[in-house]
Amino acid sequence: xxxxxxxxxxxxxxxxxxxxSTTGGMGEEASKFYKHLxxxxxxxxxxxxxxxxxxxxxxxxxxxxxxxxxxLRGHRGRVRTIPEEPNELDLNFGPIVEYY
Length: 100
Prior knowledge:
By secondary structure, the chain is mostly helical. 53% of the residues lie in helices and 0% in strands. The chain has three helices and no strands.
């Protein structure tokens, strides 16, 4: 891939295309990326890995579904955004118990 070579030589970085199907399936590189992302989020927030990856996949599937619906029927109504505070996001759905 010519673009990958340019990124490696000029930018000293890598490029990973995230490829998804409309049903929520993902390509091999996208799957690796999301596993890596879930691992980092899990370590940083001290949440269990399987809860984090489940949350990420669920959010991704709903975003893909919403995108497909909008592309088929068009956008209706006003856009409302509700910001999420990542510090307050708990993915374990239960009380956090700290052991000393």
